[in-house]
Amino acid sequence: MQLSIIIINYNTFKLTCNCIQSIKEKLVDLTYEIILVDNDSSECDPQLFLKTFTDIRLIVSAENTGFTGGNNIGISKAKGEYILLLNSDTELINNAPKICYDYMQQHPEVGMTSSQLTYPDGRIQYNCRRFRTITWELLEVLPLYLLLPKKKKEKLMLHHYFDHKSDMKCDWIWGTFIFFPKKIIHELNGNKLAGDFFMYCEDVLWCWDFKNLGYQIHFLPAAKVMHIHKGSTSKDKLRQVRITSIKNHAQFMKKFYPDFRWYVFAAIYYTKQYTSLWLGKLTGK
Questions:
Q1: S-S: 112 plus which of 92, 141, 159, 180, CB 3.0-4.6 Å?
Q2: What are 236-278's pLDDT values in tens digits?
Q3: Which residues form the domain of 144?
Q4: Same-domain check for residues 67 and 103
Q5: Strand ranges in the chain using DSSP code E only, listed in sequence order
Q6: pTM metric for this prediction
Q7: CA distances from 1 to 72, 114, 156, 237 (A)
């Protein structure tokens, strides 16, 4: 088995079915299995998935273990040489897993890859990132990045400053599409993905752990995936999701700055993020 694809379902039956169907239509030239972990959904009986897709492996969790917990459950049952963590609100546009597989076969120094993500209307999402640092925040807030040459700014800042149309070595990628060799799991603490966060910012932490093991993380725009983005989150919860993400990211930065510098970072970061939230509420965005 070359690849195990792990999808977490939490009350997203239709989206998850669309995701699985896209895999069946687009993924070729790899032996693979689809492991669907239902995280204690209440929307419908998870056994309905097996009536639609008889060849998937369904794991029904008795409790909602969060994004990290669900993925760790799936990984523990995976038979594949490689693992693909794939959000339920995605659909493959092309043979993205095979593109990542071939790339990683040729680049053993790379421990994790991701695809180009687009909204349903074709707009590119900015999933190729740098770790937020004091320097990064100041470059954006002041904004000193305007003084940088375009190419240097793209490579140094990434995020929306990078057009996401060329291969790029980065610090972290969204958990929407994460492709890596299963063997690396056994190099991690506890032989599993770190579960410091129930949801949001866990992907940053995983990438941090992979990089600390000496692996590179690469973004591959040739691999293309449509991502509804927040498709698994109800609209009335989006603001709370943003707040949770802000807090978790700040807490993660304590690993990056385990000294007084964290307080400097937190002052800049929290001020910027909560100002943005306030302005968004004021303008209805």
A1: 180
A2: 677 788 899 999 999 999 988 999 999 999 999 999 998 988 8
A3: 133-162
A4: yes
A5: 3-9, 32-39, 57-61, 82-86, 90-92, 110-118, 128-129, 168-170, 172-173, 177-181, 216-227
A6: 0.94
A7: 19, 20, 38, 39
